[in-house]
From TrEMBL:
Pfam families, per database record: SBP_bac_5, TAT_signal
PROSITE patterns: TAT
Region forming the signal peptide: 1-34
Highest taxon of the lineage: Bacteria
UniProt entry keywords in alphabetical sequence: Signal
Lineage: Bacteria, Bacillati, Actinomycetota, Actinomycetes, Kitasatosporales
Domain Solute-binding protein family: residue ranges: 99-451
Gene Ontology biological process terms, A to Z: peptide transport
Gene Ontology MF term list: peptide transmembrane transporter activity
UniProt GO cellular component terms: ATP-binding cassette (ABC) transporter complex; periplasmic space
Protein name (Swiss-Prot/TrEMBL): Peptide ABC transporter substrate-binding protein
InterPro entries: Peptide/Ni-bd, SBP_5, SBP_5_dom, TAT_signal, TAT_signal_bac_arc
Length: 543
């Protein structure tokens, strides 16, 4: 049996980077495919001004809008957030609790313990081009996801448990499961229903990658300018559960921190909302009257070791380097208190969280003992790191900690694409430091763990660990947990195999941190800070 994300790495690696933004912060990656736009090329187009209830909501997103917009392929923070406003799943989920609610379907299945889920589509639902949404569109999207010849990112979230999607009639569909999998109901939001008459045309999937978006959601895309902004307007034909509160929206992409903060600062602020707020700017924004709140979740700095490069094949060495890191100092200095040292692969707020049996509390003496037991002396390490700003802020603590136990450490922060190019080309490396946030896809621990671990998983290929005997047993245990029908037993099985992941420390978080969102409370209400990149405005409105 293939696990829930085994199929993700089957994408060509370069495509995976373009489409998935594999690191949480890599949602800001540029895509060479983003040259086209679906609107006018003027980067001065703000989607209109307006006044009163007709005025334009302007949001600043701290990630690029030039990654893939294909909902079956993307993990770009900007496009995933936008797609949640443009498209609908049969079910969608609350952005914070991730509880499923009826979107294109009329209700959530009552029996989640079976192997057949039937859905009736919302009467009168239409796509943004005016054509009705039908069962054929649902079958079309799931057919692409489940097609063994078509590799998509979301395929990995469905292929292990979903057998088939069948049309009953024009307004009704049936999902046939391979085995009972109640968690799958929340994953249905990751299968956005796209119009067959638009995206079955030759070249249409390439257009989707470049920014073409036609859905049935409350907002329709009106212009898309890669590296600048994307505009939206309320869709008059929308008859679903979360009505659009804003006539027009203009989302600016500003990846650099200083201009992003400046855009929402002061009396002449050009935007009412911004995500990805640097910790150093929180107090000033609050003094300016902004509300600044954080969302704590799976966002993390992780270390990944090349287990084919000695001495990192020795678990004692990997453990020693984790024990050596002064994580308390890292949280205090680099994260300004907005984070916690990891005590499990999962963050403490995850429903499946349990403190791992191996917790890497700061213990430099234990680190030295482990290195000595492994027979390691005079170790020199170059940390290959992405140059995401908060990760770069954390690196000096790692270097100082490792230097203090006699490990000479060199920092090598680089563009994310450069880091992956080296790994794609199977170049030798020792340790990678990067950011990840699988909460983009949900809180489901099975999904989160399979996103990172599995015999054909991309990360395991980079770590070169999948052939290890411990790894093989871990993957078997993960597959058994996926199939376990009893929710409490499944949670215990996941917690038990996370203990193995913690002990092995092949790819493991050092700290989990908060993501900060700022908004003007005199202009907006109903905003909730997300623990993953992007914004969700489906329950927001003018104050």
């Amino acid at each position: 049996m293939r696990d829930a994300t085994h199929d993700v790495p089957a994408l060509h690696r370069r495509s995976f980077l373009k489409y998935s933004g594999a690191l949480g912060a890599a949602a800001a990656l540029s895509s060479s495919l983003a040259a086209c736009s679906s609107g006018p090329e003027s980067t001065n187009d703000t989607g209109g001004g307006g006044s009163g209830g007709n005025r334009t909501l302007t949001a600043v997103i701290g990630y690029g809008n030039d990654g893939s917009w294909d909902p079956t392929q993307t993990a770009s923070a900007f496009s995933m957030a936008a797609n949640n406003h443009i498209y609908e799943g049969l079910l969608d989920t609350d952005p914070i609790s991730r509880e499923p609610y009826a979107a294109l379907a009329t209700q959530v299945p009552k029996d989640l313990g079976g192997t057949s889920w039937k859905f009736t589509l919302r009467s009168g639902a239409t796509f943004h081009d005016g054509k009705p949404v039908t069962a054929d569109d649902v079958v079309f999207v799931f057919g692409r996801i489940l097609d063994p010849k078509t590799q998509t990112l979301v395929k990995g979230f469905f292929a292990s448990w979903l057998k088939d999607v069948r049309k009953i009639d024009a307004q009704n569909v049936e999902l046939v499961l391979k085995f009972p999998f109640p968690e799958g109901v929340s994953r249905l939001t990751l299968a956005k229903i796209m119009p067959r008459h638009v995206f079955s045309r030759p070249g249409a999937w390439e257009d989707a990658i470049k920014g073409k978006a036609v859905g049935s959601g409350p907002y329709r895309q009106t212009a898309h300018h890669p590296k600048s902004n994307t505009t939206f307007e309320a869709f008059a034909g929308y008859n679903g559960p979360r009505k659009p509160a804003f006539k027009k929206m203009n989302w600016l992409t500003i990846v650099d921190a200083a201009p992003r903060v400046a855009k929402v600062s002061g009396a002449s602020a050009g935007a009412q909302l911004a995500d990805n707020i640097p910790y150093a700017n929180i107090q000033q924004l609050k003094k300016d009257g902004m509300t600044v709140e954080g969302g704590a979740g799976m966002n993390n700095l992780f270390l990944m070791f090349n287990t084919k490069h000695k001495p990192f094949d020795d678990v004692r060495v990997r453990q020693a380097l984790h024990y050596a890191i002064d994580t308390g100092k890292m949280v205090e200095v680099a994260l300004k208190g907005h984070g916690k040292p990891s005590s499990s692969f999962l963050n403490e707020g995850n429903p499946a969280y349990r403190k791992a049996k191996t917790v890497y509390d700061y213990d430099p003496e234990k680190a030295k003992e482990l290195l000595k037991a492994a027979g390691v002396k005079g170790l020199e390490i170059e940390i290959l790191s992405v140059n995401v700003s908060w990760i770069v802020d954390c690196l000096p603590t790692i270097k100082a900690s490792w230097d203090a136990i006699g490990v000479r450490t060199t920092l090598s922060p680089q563009e994310t694409t450069a880091v992956f190019t080296k790994m794609d080309q199977k170049q030798d490396y020792q340790v990678v430091a990067a950011a990840s946030n699988p909460n983009q896809f949900g809180l489901d621990a099975d999904l989160i763990m399979h996103y990172n671990y599995g015999p054909q998983n991309l990360w395991m290929q980079y770590a070169r660990w999948a052939g290890d005997s411990v790894a093989k047993q871990l993957f078997r245990d993960m597959d058994l947990a996926t199939r376990q029908p009893d929710a409490e037993k499944k949670k215990l099985m996941i917690q038990d195999y996370i203990d193995v992941v913690a002990e092995q420390a092949v790819l493991y978080p050092v700290v989990h941190n908060e993501l900060m969102t700022a908004w003007d409370p005199e202009k907006l209400s109903g905003i909730r800070a997300q623990p993953y990149p992007g914004v969700n405005l489906l329950q927001a409105k003018w104050a």
